[in-house]
Amino acid sequence: MECKNGTPVIExxxxxxxxxxxxxxxxxVFFLTVYLLSLAGNILIISVVxxxxxxxTPMYFFLGNLSFVDFCLTSVTVPLLLVNLLSKDGRTPLPNxxxxxxxxxxxxxxxxxxxxxxAYDRYVAICNPLRYHIVxxxxxxxxxxxxxWGSVSLHSLMHTLMACRLSFCGPNVISSFFxxxxxxxxxxxxxxxxxxxxxxxxxxxxxxVPSVFIVVSYANIVSTVLKLQSxxxxxxxxxTCSSHLMxxxxxxxxxxxxxFRPASVSSLEYDRAVSVMYTMxxxxxxxxxxxLRNKEIKGAIRRILKRKLCHS
Length: 312
What we know:
Helix content is about 75%, strand content about 5%. By secondary structure, the chain is an all-alpha fold. The N and C termini lie far apart (about 60 Å).
């Protein structure tokens, strides 16, 4: 849409951490370290899952996809932040901002859906183990992942196209370090009622359905595990879920703090800290949670290294 009064905005300025100009170098080193650790951890899990035949199970198939989503999520936001910290110039063209918004929504929502799918996988494995390989067949797992990626890409495209119809004629400063939907909508000179309604109705359902699915799945898991007579079996069942549950708490905890907090606790520093948590720190921690707490992952790493050493 064209501006009736004034010149259309053709670029945004990402405020980022520009108010900490004396700490730009330190921030660059910190975010680069977090980014590299995140990439290394997620690439390690993807490689191990694909290289070790003993990890050819639905749980690790979903884990490999989750690691790939985390890899993409950090790559959507962090490289631009690093460039801006080096150049001390937060300008980004409007098309680039919209593109980043599209991929960010896609990755975050795909992670939400995958966490729900992984909860269902653990539910079937613990509550209905005799039918596990029938229910979670290879074809069904592939279709679940394909539907997650495909349906969410349409969800992301819908929000992005709705943002493209807006006009921007006034302020062009985004207080965040990336193009988040709420921050961009605040700068529009058009009526954003339809966008807000879409976020409230369609966007909320996309976020709430997986979370409800996770809660119901784990309620059934806990109920089933507590009925087991053997404490060893109970411990084994809980251990297979502990890593996933920690990742769920990290992901949904930071999302809730960011988007469902009281307005009274909102501040620039608060928003930036929480944004850093769920766009960088959480994807990094996910890989370490699964690699350090999972005996099968650690065993697979040792087997792969052993094979490499034997063939060298």
